[in-house]
Design a protein that fits this description.
Radius of gyration of chain B: 20 Å
Radius of gyration of chain C: 19 Å
Chains: A mainly alpha (173), B mainly alpha (112), C mainly alpha (149)
Strand content of chain B: under 5%
Structural class of chain C: mainly alpha
Oligomer: heterotrimer
Number of strands of chain B: 0
Largest sheet of chain C: none
CATH architecture of chain B: Orthogonal Bundle
Order of helices and strands of chain B: HHHH
Order of helices and strands of chain C: HHHHH
Strand content of chain C: under 5%
Helix content of chain B: over 70%
Structural class of chain B: mainly alpha
Largest interface: A-B, 80 and 77 residues
Number of helices of chain B: 4
CATH topology of chain B: Helix Hairpins
Distance between the termini of chain C: 17 Å
């Protein structure tokens, strides 16, 4: 019951973030969606994810506000917007209808099929010696995925430093 | 079942924002909303009613834990989403410095 | 007429930052080191360590923060973390297969020095994530300040 109310709050905050015209207000509304998501992770019994989502949300807000605080630009509506909007809404309605038929094939909410996870939970403490099973999974049973994630973060940092750099530009202003 | 529908509605709001808005920062906001919806969907699949968090305690025998594998996948996905957002914001700052505007329709017309 | 230009934020923010920035760094290190016993792990702890340095930069201006951790040191620390993680993985080849744990024993459960190579991997990942995110933030704000002039 609390989960559904929290999801409704996140939906209304997302609608506010999309429709308001001021850029600073929409960034703050996205922050509200992220904090609601952190609470939803806590209700769904995932404490690792709640801590990580909270601090990553704060950092994302700082980067977005810091980069856009001087450049407030309102949105402009051009001509031919009626046709564009109705075709987008039609496509989204079609997507929702097909996804409803696909969602009926999933196991019902609250009873997952845990075939691989049953073995990880029973053998986790004996094979790795760690009490936190999620940490044992990402660093011992599936360490290869963590190596891939470290590579992606490295590439993202290289990309930002390469884009921002001013090499060989003469300041003639 | 209704939680899945609400999660997909959140995804569709983000999709509408990416398709219809003209400001680059609004597109980044839409991308963030899509990423929250996908992470939430993964964790919703692995939830067990009246389950417990996947951490062992010292002198208890816990028999009904929630599924820990989707949580392990989402943990790295959250930090990767932060890296992608930082990269897009860096590109947007460079675009503003070169063209003087955040409007994506004007960026296509000014060549060179 | 140019008055004196105050770097950073007001006096209240500076005083509170002096009191809390050490505690935030200590909390981040605690979450990294106990990653195999309580929720948290390397990713969350690394982001918290980066947040403590970012708070120092926001409250005091960028010269003071760059004195504590310069941009070159952040790049070196990030590469060091990545190399440490990769070498722990490759050293497993000497025992059998990838990520094999042969040089640290498992120990008693629920102890701080248990669980083999998992604490070392957590420390390597936290160095990488923390230094990388701080380098991103420094690059974005230095660009903005040099463009404003």
């Amino acid at each position: 019951m609390e989960l559904q109310l929290l999801l409704l709050f996140m939906l209304s905050a997302a609608v506010v973030a999309v429709e308001v015209e001021d850029l600073l207000s929409s960034v703050i509304a996205v922050g509200a969606v992220g904090l609601g998501l952190s609470l939803a992770f806590l209700i769904l019994k995932a404490p690792d994810l709640a801590i990580t989502q909270l601090v990553v949300e704060i950092l994302c807000l700082i980067i977005l506000i810091r980069a856009t605080i001087n450049k407030d630009l309102p949105l402009i509506k051009d001509g031919r917007w009626f046709f564009n909007t109705t075709s987008t809404l039609l496509f989204i309605a079609l997507f929702l209808i097909f996804s409803y038929f696909a969602l009926k094939e999933l196991p019902p909410f609250g009873s997952p099929i845990m075939r691989v996870a049953k073995e990880y939970i029973e053998q986790g403490l004996k094979k790795t010696g760690a009490a936190n099973i999620v940490a044992a999974i990402i660093l011992d049973f599936r360490g290869y995925d963590t190596l891939g994630e470290a590579t992606i973060l490295f590439t993202a940092v290289m990309g930002v430093l390469a884009i921002i750099r001013r090499v060989g530009r003469i300041n003639e202003r | 079942m209704i939680e899945y529908i609400l999660c997909f509605a959140l995804f569709c709001i983000g999709l509408y924002c990416i398709l219809r808005k003209r400001n680059i920062i609004k597109i980044v906001v839409g991308l963030g909303i899509i990423e929250y919806a996908v992470n939430l969907f993964f964790v919703l699949i692995g939830y067990r009613t009246h389950g417990r968090a996947p951490i062992l305690a010292k002198d208890q025998v816990i028999s009904n834990m929630v599924d820990p594998i989707p949580q392990a996948l989402v943990l790295t996905s959250i930090v990767i989403g932060l890296g992608v957002t930082a990269l897009i914001v860096a590109i947007a700052i460079r675009i503003y410095e070169k063209y003087g505007t955040f409007d994506i329709t004007k960026i296509r017309r000014l060549k060179g | 007429m140019k008055g004196e230009k105050e770097k950073g934020m007001t006096l209240i923010v500076k005083t509170v930052t002096r009191l809390t920035v050490g505690l935030i760094l200590l909390y981040g290190i605690y979450i990294v080191l106990h990653g195999h016993l309580t929720p948290g792990g390397g990713f969350a702890g690394g982001v918290i360590i980066a947040l403590s340095f970012i708070q120092l930069m926001l409250a005091f201006g960028k010269e003071m923060a760059l004195k504590k951790l310069s941009q070159l040191a952040a790049s070196v620390l990030e590469s060091l973390g990545a190399i440490m993680f990769l070498s722990i993985a490759v050293l497993g080849f000497m025992g059998g297969y990838f990520f094999f744990n042969f040089f640290l024993q498992k120990g008693k459960p629920f102890d701080l020095f248990s669980a083999g190579i998992i604490p070392l991997c957590n420390i390597a990942i936290s160095l990488k994530v923390g230094a990388g995110l701080f380098a991103i933030f420094v690059a974005l704000t230095l660009f903005k300040e040099s463009e404003k002039e």
